[in-house]
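Q: Convert this sequence to structure tokens.
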Amino acid sequence: MLWILSLFPKITSSYGKEVDNLFWFIFFIALFFFLLVQILMIYFVIKYRNRGEEEVSKVEGNTFLEIVWTIIPTIILIVIFFYGVYVFDNFQRRPPANSMEIKVIGHQWWWEFQYPNGYTTRDTLIIPVNKPIKLIMTSQDVIHSFFVRHFRIKEDLVPGRYTWTWFKAVEPGMYDIQCAEYCGSRHSKMIGYIKAIDTKEFESWLASVSKEADLSSLSPVERGKRISQLKGCNSCHSVDGSPGVGPTWKGLYNHEMVVIEGGKEKKVIADENYLRESIVNPNAKIVKGYQGIMPSYQGQLSEDDILAIIEYIKSLK
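A:
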């Protein structure tokens, strides 16, 4: 049986053991009854097989057996229910009071992590070891699911509402984040990482990036570049002319484009007004040959942020 345990990733969170114990409890109960049913079925098929045309098996009901195989599964299901509630409520839904809160936003098809100091990372969540982390999560577009096998956590990210989960990494290392909810054509590419590091190393890193979170000292072009990186724009729009999910930003400004508006084709110039509209209402005019899958950034970006991104696009000649 040890070879089965080796198929599971190593537990590296504080309550992963309780989750695995619940799993194995349910698994072995299901395995016992599966084998019992199969063995009895084979036994009865052989014992009561029809050996001739005149021989007919006579089967009568048994009230006692019917009561037994109704009551026993009912009791087992009640035990499983309360055991599951115990693990869920006492471990997964009770984050310690000193938990660090980090916001998680799911996008098609990348993860955005926002730290308390305003710094944002893309696809990589850096955390301190032995520090409880509470994730406040939502989605920008469709339902995603935040799944980390080593921590035994899985929680859905739903557009228009907040969900949450928590964990505490007990060992340094890199741990895979997967989206466990089909979210579109690039669902399989929506992979991120949790990097658990020593507490002192984390504090030093957080202090260094706090300066980067302040964008006020940057030029409009540099600020726009930084904001576009934080928002993951480069996951769909290249800056070197290479093809992508969306049109490349290189040479885009003042370029004549064919778009679909109201089901009809028309030509537009990619000036400041068009670029702004494409950021706050991207489906108003969809560039011909591309899908209307870009989410709106209305309310997520200030006018200063939008102007900075436009200046950055204008610089990519």
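The chain has three domains: 2-47+60-92, 100-213, 220-315.
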